[in-house]
Amino acid sequence: MTKRRPLPKALYGLVVGLATVALTLTGAVPTASAAPFAYIGYQAATGDGIVAVVDASNFNVIASVPIGAPPSGVAVNAAGTKAWVASSGTGATTVTLVETTLSGGQPTSVRVAAVVNLLRDRPTAIALSPNGGTAYVTHADGWISVVDTTSYAVTGFAAAVGSMLRGIAVNPAGTRLFVSDATQRSVLVVDPALQSLVGAPLAVGFTPEGIAVNPVGTQVYAVGAATNGVGWVSLIDANALTWTNLNLGSGVNPAGVAVHPAGHHVYVTNRSTASVSIVYAPTRTVMTPTLTSQIRVGRSPNGIAIDATGQRVFVLGEAASTAATPGILSVIDPQAMTGYGLPGIPVTFGMFVGGGAADSNTAKLQEELDAANATIARLTTELANAEALKTQLDAANAKIDALTAELAAANSKVTALQSEVDDLKKQLASVADLQAELTKAKEAAKQLTDDLEAANLTIASFVRRLVAGRTDANVAEAVRVAAERQIALATSKLGWKDPRVRHAQKEYGRGMAALRDGHFQRAVKEFVDAYESASRLRRS
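User: That's the sequence. What structure does it adopt?
Assistant: Structure tokens below.
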């Protein structure tokens, strides 16, 4: 049995602040069957690569295994008993299988079970298929090696010739690989069965490094920094292959990323600020933990992983310069954050923690949460549209009230004029002039009545728009009348030869053409443009 060596926590002298992060998914808390193991690769003072195996039940280093060249990527199986470690650097062409034997849930030995030669050198990252039967290794020349973890047979293919490939992640179905292409500043989507790209590279606009897929395979998260120093996380729809970039701040230099087993929180390491940012996936927002805007960890944090229970987040970084140990493992849980010294500066990149079992209903709860969030987003959009239409409806009602008041005033005037006519008829033999004035007043009243009817039709149109989302002739006609009046006022002020007046008239003419052709929505746009042009001239 390998002798246990406790971590020298008392020697590295690093004080780590307390941070509390609430992790909930509609009340679901995953349960575990066994403590996980962390496989942490670092480069020894001799230049050799070492993998330290840490028992997460007590954070003892149970073994340190030499693997030759310094490690880069690490991928651990679900049971936490096998870690595939890719060695980095020019001329490095191997992946090493480090195996932990358990008895009664407790480790009894750790050994190098196999060393597999790859077809290319300079491996950068590694990921396992969901069943653990295949390991995918990215290379610095754009190739991906495919390793059969049972027979150790190796094949490979060029995903992006000449590109520096960084992180790699596999979806839960094992049907897609998502790869960070640092050279093309994009994310590659690969069909492992066909060994070819699915569509064009996703040009996320920054240099991606770490990449991870949520537990149900619907979202992919790629992190990195742009040339201007701003850190980003790209939220990629794994089905539609569309993405949204979320700003993590300037000068943070994101490196690693891990997704909580429930899928609701995404953790990102920031190398330049020695911190971890948390993204709340349902709302696509950067969270603010209890004490600080970011969780502080060891210097230059790179690798990050979460155990299957979701109860602890493991972050690898450098210790303070005064510490007795050069490396530090920061462990974040819902109660506190604790640091553990490491014998070397970790260079591990990837999912380096395995073991424990998540609650079987987590995926179902995540699907329900995703569906609920989609419904909320849809209803929010519908509410915004309804509020916009209500604003228009209120404006139309105000116009009706104004027209009604004008009509009442006109009717009063008609009554007064009629009274005057009756008096004049008794006094004068000829009442032609007064009759003409009365006729004009009646015509004005009729015009106002017509305007009121048009306004009523506009209201009916707004109601129909609220239900069906269409623009009809009544709305177009109402906007036309308003535009015509504004143009008349602008013409009376500046003259019809003014080029700006002519421009407004051309917009009005295009609106009339669209109205005659029955293109009411285009007609409304042209009339609105003509109205605004003439209105600006009138106010100038």
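Residues 1-33, 289-293 have pLDDT under 50 and may be disordered.
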